[in-house]
Design goal:
The chain is of the alpha/beta class. The protein has a single domain, classed as Alkaline Phosphatase, subunit A, CATH 3.40.720. It is about 35% helix and about 15% strand. The protein has helices spanning about 30-35, 60-70, 85-95, 105-115, 150, 160-180, 185-200, 205, 220-230, 255-275, 345-355, 360-365, and strands at about 10-15, 25, 45-50, 55, 70-80, 125-130, 145, 240-245, 285-290, 310-315, 320-325, 345. Strand 3 (about 45-50) and strand 4 form a beta hairpin. Helix 2 packs across helix 10 (about 255-275). About 45% of the residues are buried.
Length: about 375
């Protein structure tokens, strides 16, 4: 899959809140779209056509350029049966591949455990943003979570090993009354040392980074710049995770959604340009997903929680194009007023795992699902 000898790397971008897929990849030739979106329909002259049926919102023109170059796969109608329209439960299902039960381990946490079973590298998985997404959480898995790469190395001010051990011992004594001792305390101590080690390693990323790409000043651009810096530092990271929030557009969607798509597509364009400038793009594939789409009809100001949505897979090794079926807008074919899913998201995960990352997917996604030919 990768000819330069480097390990394949997966970058996951989570669009938090439920991206409006109908106003992202627009069924511009369908009159039902304009009938349903009296307030928010995108005029046909503002659509970048793919074919006679659908096209890109012009605010994601940079993504359309990558699509035209064959580097973007658009997965239409992605979702799962009996969609949860709850943000928390919906995202939890995408994070764990468990629609019927509440799981304790995330799909990417399991992947990291497969890639680094002895936790030799605390940077096998790196998350940029607040907290640790459920997708990355798993037993005996260390993931380095970073809010701001430029300030992350400040933790290494505890320079001497003895001082570090004393700090961890204090941490252990503070939390033991609440969580107990024994294996739990041992795990916390080990994880703490891993985090400190990770901080030392991550210092190299901003120190050695040079680029002519000028990323925009917004959260997703900053995060993808950080991903690029760590990737270019060659620290052995195989899974990157980051998030772009604000997609819960119940109101004021007309100004909000175009801004979000502009930020997202510009950041993705700059990220891949940065990698190309450093001849480091060949072993990177990006997944962009959201927890659900929005309702077919607008509410006069925005759109409410829906079901079937869309995802993107981006990279030089991607077989670009449209995949799966765009859901029908016919009223009789809707699911409680929402687009039905036409493709199970677990099939896309399985595709990425087996055809890109090199990990057997069945135990991670919980079964056998249709894979897509989006990767060689």
């Amino acid at each position: 899959m990768v000819e330069n000898g480097k390990q394949p790397t997966l970058v996951v971008v989570q669009l938090t809140g439920g991206n409006d897929f109908m106003n992202t990849i627009i069924p511009y030739s369908n009159g039902l779209y304009y009938d349903s979106r009296e307030t928010l329909a995108i005029p046909e002259d503002e659509v970048l056509p793919v074919d006679g049926a659908v096209g890109f919102n012009q605010t994601i023109a940079p993504l359309k350029e990558l699509f035209d170059g064959g580097d973007v796969a658009v997965v239409q109608g992605i979702g799962y049966p009996d969609s949860s329209r709850s943000h928390f439960r919906g995202m939890d299902i995408w994070h764990t591949c468990e629609p019927n039960t509440v799981a304790t381990e995330g799909w990417l946490g399991k992947v990291i455990r497969e890639l680094d079973p002895t936790t030799n590298n605390p940077l096998t998985g790196v998350s940029f943003g607040r907290g640790l997404p459920r997708a990355l959480a798993a037993q005996d898995v260390t993931v380095t979570s970073v809010g701001d790469l430029d300030n992350y190395g400040l933790m290494t001010g505890i320079s001497a090993q003895q001082q570090r051990l004393e700090a961890l011992d204090l941490f252990n004594r503070i939390y033991t009354p609440a969580i107990g001792s024994g294996p739990v305390a041992d795990y916390l101590a080990r994880t703490g040392l891993d985090v400190l080690h990770g901080a030392d390693m991550l210092k190299k990323a901003p120190e050695n980074y040079e680029s002519e790409v000028e990323y925009a000043d917004n959260p997703i651009a900053t995060s993808l710049r950080d991903v690029a810096r760590v990737h270019l530092a060659d620290l052995g990271t195989r899974i990157f995770y980051t998030q772009h929030g604000g997609y819960d557009t119940h109101a004021n969607e007309a100004p909000t959604h175009p801004r979000l798509l502009t930020e997202l597509s510009g950041a993705i364009r700059d990220f891949f340009q940065d990698l190309r400038d450093h001849a480091a793009q060949e072993n990177v594939v990006m997944l962009v997903f959201t927890e659900f789409g929005r309702r077919v009809r607008d509410n006069g100001s925005g759109t409410d929680h829906g079901a079937g949505g869309g995802a993107f897979v981006i990279g030089e090794k991607v077989n670009g194009g449209l995949y799966a079926q765009y859901p029908s807008l016919e009223p009789s074919q809707l699911e409680q007023g929402d687009l039905r899913h036409t493709y199970d998201f677990r099939g896309l995960y399985a595709t990425l795992l087996e055809r890109w990352v090199g990990v057997e997917a069945r135990s991670i996604v919980g079964g056998e699902y249709e894979q897509l030919p989006i990767l060689a």
